[in-house]
Design brief:
about 30% helix; single chain; alpha/beta; 8-stranded parallel beta barrel; 12 strands; 9 helices
Length: about 300
């Protein structure tokens, strides 16, 4: 018997106000059948002190609703404060998500962890090495097509595989802050201007064409990735969980749509129609999943 596909909610990538964060996760806890929620600031360490109390309150709501909460690490710890924060999380004995390899040096030997999509694991050899360090689940790099996931699954059949199924794709991180620069500010005095764009700031080419999105030091896709192929293809690739990335769209509706899809109650075309009408910030894309340019829509 094939196990039920999990629906998970990835860490919030954007700089939302604390009261919005609490309200968002209260609704997720109360109104969705999401199995697992990843919490934590992964993009910019400067946001962490502002967001910490709100996330702690969110964790309480989620756990009381029966959700599994996993704390995610910063993806690019750059300052002594960032590194101290990462060390504290690494020493935490329960399950955590690693988004930078430096976190493993402070992880207790054998302690379980999830390898996040920002670790850029591209093959089964790298996955096996992480398993030897305690990795129990891999959220695959967003660039990997299904056929590459099949190879990882064949080489590491005991490793749980999660894929990034919904949201603007997290493509890159920088030591510099594009958001601050766009507003004529330095990163050290950014005034947290990234909070003005709930789903990231749209970027256009010199010709005025939609291109990417900027979220502080992070570069995202302009389009919204949607992975909903035939369920049999996911099962053949060893996928065990679908990750949704928080956006300002109606995430409760999106989570319910994915739950119905994973349970075989909605066909891919029905999922596409539901997601397109949920207030997403860009056009649908899914090229990477099918071995094509990520900005493509392969249907």
């Amino acid at each position: 018997m094939t196990a039920r596909l999990e629906i998970t909610l990835g860490p919030l990538l954007f700089n939302w106000a604390p009261e919005r964060v609490v309200a968002f996760y209260e609704r997720i806890a109360r109104e969705t059948d999401i199995d697992r929620v990843y919490l934590g600031e992964v993009v910019c360490g400067k946001r962490e002190p502002l967001l910490g109390p709100a996330l702690a309150e969110a964790a309480d709501h989620l756990q009381r609703a029966g959700k599994t909460v996993v704390w995610s690490s910063l993806a690019l710890p750059a300052t002594p404060r960032d590194r101290a924060s990462t060390r504290r999380l690494a020493a935490y004995p329960d399950l955590m998500e690693a988004n930078d390899l430096s976190v493993l040096q402070d992880r207790p030997p054998g302690a379980a962890f999830v390898a996040g999509p920002l670790l850029n694991v591209y093959n089964e050899a790298a996955a096996a090495e992480l398993m030897s360090r305690g990795c129990t689940r891999l959220c695959a790099n967003v660039e990997l097509p299904l056929r590459a996931l099949s190879h990882i699954h064949a080489g590491c059949p005991e490793l749980e595989l999660e894929i990034f199924a919904f949201g603007r794709l997290p493509l890159a991180l920088s030591g510099r802050c594009y958001h601050a620069r766009a507003h004529g500010l330095h990163r050290d005095n950014c005034q947290f201007v990234c909070d003005r764009d709930l789903d990231g700031m749209d970027v256009q080419t010199l010709e005025g064409q939609p291109f990417l999105a900027v979220n502080g030091v992070q570069t995202l896709s302009h389009g919204v990735h949607l992975a909903c192929p035939d369920i049999a293809l996911l099962q053949a690739a060893g996928v065990t969980a679908l990750r949704l990335s928080p956006h300002s769209a109606d995430m409760v509706r999106i989570a319910r749509t994915f739950r119905a899809y994973a349970d075989g109650e909605l066909e891919p075309a029905q999922v596409e129609a539901e997601i397109e009408s949920a207030g997403i910030p860009g056009p649908l894309i899914n090229g990477y999943l099918h071995g094509r340019p990520g900005r493509d829509w392969a249907g």
